[in-house]
Amino acid sequence: MTPALPSVLIVDDDVDFAHAAADFARTRGFRATLAHSIEESRQLIGRDGADLMLLDLELPDGSGFDLLDELDLAHHNGRVAIVTGTPSIESAARAVSMPVVDYLIKPLCPVQFEALLADARARTPRPLPSAFGGLIGECDAMQGIVRDLCKVAPTPASVLITGESGTGKELIARAVHEQSARRGKFVAVNCGAIAPELLASHLFGHERGSFTGAANRHIGYFEQAHQGTLFLDEITEMPPGLQVYLLRALETGQITRVGGLDSIDVNVRIVAATNRDPERAIDEGRLREDLFYRLADFIVTMPPLRARGDDVLLLAQAFVDRLNTQSGQRKRLAPDAHRVLLQHSWPGNVRELRSAIQRAYVLSDGDTVKLAMPGRRVAPMHHDDTTVMFTVGMTYAEIEREMLLKTLARFNHDKTQTARALGVSVRTIHNQLARLDDDARDGSDA
Ligand SMILES: Nc1ncnc2c1ncn2[C@@H]1O[C@H](COP(=O)(O)OP(=O)(O)OP(=O)(O)O)[C@@H](O)[C@H]1O
Ligand SMILES: [Mg+2]
């Protein structure tokens, strides 16, 4: 996904100067926006911030310092350069006393401007490499997520990712690790897929003989993720008692193996995920509030695919391209595919899309990939979310898949409730979802 260009905001009532500066910045790969008053600049800063702001002092509706007083400079990510035509010792002294503020005098010398831009560019996070799990998305929400994560990833901040099933939470978790430059491994633990009574020893490890069946010492996920990232998926499925231990480990940076006595230092960055609403999970007693605050230095909310506009088209095309590359074929999406893609609500999100493309690709005879959407094929006359219609000719795998996705959607992607409704374990749900992923992946590896 292409991240936004570094940005410069030029706040100056001298329209000619502002335009000249904007053009200068644009030719150097910046996105430039202009404001001619404090009021206008306020709106622009609120909307998308700026990596660099050129700020005039005498503006029609006040002094540039008024704007600086409003900005919380200590937490402002961008740099501010005051560029004034009416310099004074007083204003220079005031500017110099503020963090991240430069003081320059008009006419602005190109060499100085160039240096400011170079500095802003250097501080703008690196674009996400495409190797990063192939995260695709250009809608504002996804761009915003990537922009924020570029800033958060290199810090030790914990990250909590929420969002429906199949929205890419794990992909994001891996991306955070890859962008973090942490030396250790990325270790993923699905708290909902491990029997609760075994979770402690999986996380913290155990000493030989610490319980029946513990024949050997076992190094837990925490130690495996030392200097790296521990991804705690489905965090709300962790028993509350264990959440207490987890919190203690995070606060002290130390763990003790089950059946052991020694405290072991661990340096682990935590990324957690859930498809529940964290606040509700707290109310329901599934997530301890104190742990939540420790996990949620930064919260990422993955939008459902149906709220990502044309991203569904980009993703579909990317999946077809990938399949073409891997199979050496040159199939194309049918001309009416976009209509189908945009109409379906994708309750299983990107995972569902990926499987649908995969299936259509394999089934298409010629070079045209025709999409028979589950929504159309399964229940053309049932627009409620509670009915699934099976037609003769569908495979059991297809029936299982439809039932799973519809039930997940019906229960708001709550896997525990879905499992209960389907009469299977949460683990089975996870396995089925993983299988859908694998099917898509196998197909793409074909
Ligand atoms: N933006 C994206 N670009 C490309 N592929 C994506 C994107 N988002 C998700 N995928 C793919 O969709 C599938 C599901 O993503 P992922 O496993 O990260 O979802 P999840 O939110 O963790 O789901 P669950 O809650 O069910 O665990 C994966 O195969 C992933 O690679
Ligand atoms: Mg996941």
TrEMBL record:
GO terms for molecular function: ATP binding; sequence-specific DNA binding. SUPFAM superfamilies: CheY-like (SSF52172), Homeodomain-like (SSF46689), P-loop containing nucleoside triphosphate hydrolases (SSF52540). The keyword 4Fe-4S does not apply. GO terms for biological process: phosphorelay signal transduction system; regulation of DNA-templated transcription. Residues 135-362 form the Sigma-54 factor interaction domain. It comes from the Bacteria. Residues 7-121 form the Response regulatory domain. The modification 4-aspartylphosphate is found at residue 56. Keywords: ATP-binding, DNA-binding, Nucleotide-binding, Phosphoprotein, Transcription, Transcription regulation. InterPro entries: AAA+_ATPase, AAA_lid_NorR, CheY-like_superfamily, Homeodomain-like_sf, HTH_Fis, P-loop_NTPase, Sig_transdc_resp-reg_receiver, Sigma_54_int. This is Sigma-54-dependent Fis family transcriptional regulator.
